[in-house]
Structure formats: C-alpha cells, structure tokens
Amino acid sequence: MQKWIMSGLLGVACIMAIILIFTLPGKDEVAKEAKPTMPEVTLTVDQAEATLKANCISCHGEQLQGQVGPNLQKIGATMSSDQLYGIIRKGTGQMPAFKDRLKDEEIANVALWLAEQK
Predict the structure, then answer these.
(1) Are residues 56 and 19 in the same domain?
(2) What percent of the chain has pLDDT over 70?
(3) What domain range is 103 assigned to?
(4) What is this structure's pTM?
C-alpha cells in the first residue's frame, strides 16, 4: 500500500515538474524584464510635464521638491535617463511601477526630462 502511495506521489511530482519547465519564463525573458531598455524617443517637454503633473506631483510635490517621494528637482545630476526609466517603469521601494499605467514612450519622455534636471 505504501509503495503505491509513494509511486503516485512521485508521478504527481514529475508531472508538476514538467508543467513548470514549460510554463516558467526563460532566462531571456527574465533578463529583459529585469533590465528594460529605454525606447528611443525625442524629448517633448510639454508632454513630459503633463505626464509628471498627472502622475507624480501627488508624491513628489508640485515643484518636484519632495513630499512622500524624494526631491526630483536635481535628480539628473545623480541618475541617467536609463536609470530613471527603469525606476519609473518597474518601481522601487515605495515608488509604484508605472509600466501598466503609462506607455513606454511616455515613461522614456519623463525619464529624459528628469535627466536634464541638474
């Protein structure tokens, strides 16, 4: 009786392992998600400022002086547009991810604008 139970459990474990092999993301997919590449966009100041006003001032303040979130007025002096893009897209700490709320081009435009704030 125990042999039947053990062989049944082993069979179920093998089936689960096979299912996981085919459903888990591969290394390439995980790497792409871990370090997203910023799309090439031309900075549009008006659009960047509108996106910031609609999405960022509630945490970073009207003048990006910092409130709940950090001061962004001179963030370009310490971070590149690629770094900013990754943080805005994926979020970090208390910063929420915006990849589901904004288009990649909008995020890239904001990252470019912020990178110029020095």
Answers:
(1) no
(2) 91
(3) 35-115
(4) 0.71
